[in-house]
Structure prediction request, 311 residues.
Amino acid sequence: MELRQLRYFVAIVDHGSLSRAALVLHVAQPALSQQLRQLEQELGAQLLHRSAQGVLSTDAGKVFYEHAQAILKQVADAKSAVTQSAERPSGGVTLGLPHSISGALALPLLMAARERYPEITLQLTEELTGNLAEQLKSGRVNLAVLLDDGQLGPFACTPLVEEELRYICRAGSVFARPGGSIALEQALAATLILPGLQHGVRPRIESVARAAGLSTANVIEINSIAILKSALLADMGATILPAAPLLAELERGALVSQAIERPAISRTVVLCAPKNIPLTNAAAAVGRLVQQVSAELCAGGVWLGATALPA
Prediction:
């Protein structure tokens, strides 16, 4: 198996046809087809379904595509690590962010990276926490911001912030409760719009509830932040989330939030890197920048409900 075969296969999948991939790669289509056949023979599996309309990945092809992407990224990182300097880090860095954190961190981080490290190409990917952990293990992302659920053993972790979870609903909602705060038992008794269990917020809520002898009763599961916002604004229920992903609606008064007490709920946000894959100078620089920007956002009150943690 050769690296060029991996590059060819990834290009075919990305462009959806052999002819388009051949044009992009500047390779004759018969030669591209031959390399693909050799790859499939070596693996003993069909990777692509071919038709007049193009190609689609088989189940085996989908699995192999993920591995091929990870291998090619690690090769590129290895080349970059040899050529870049510590004083002027350069190259590509991929950072994974959970949906519920990107609203607070993504834009300030991109602006800071552009200003301080103009030779680094920073790519942000937004995913569910569970998906990010898998991508970090395989090397498809260099770094990831994750939630400390006690199962981050495979990673080297640096604490970033402790983030408060709040009870949030539409202004004037039937689910609104008087006062500046609400007991956890009251919050859990409402119809709640929450992410699924694969989302980092939900397991934390369930864990705190169990420890208090409580449970969620009536839950509408929505994994998309955009759809969850729409459901809140339609007054289908309330939610328990950090303020960051709903900040725009909270600031304009469309949504209101209350602190949760007896007990309060918070989550620990950490920056993670794989233990078995060395960081390039560029990735290490981005990691330091994530810590610095997170602390600045907390100190300035921009990351609402978050308190910076010592590294």
Notes: The chain has three domains: 3-72, 86-159+269-308, 166-264. The first strand starts at residue 48 and ends at 51. The mean pLDDT is 89.
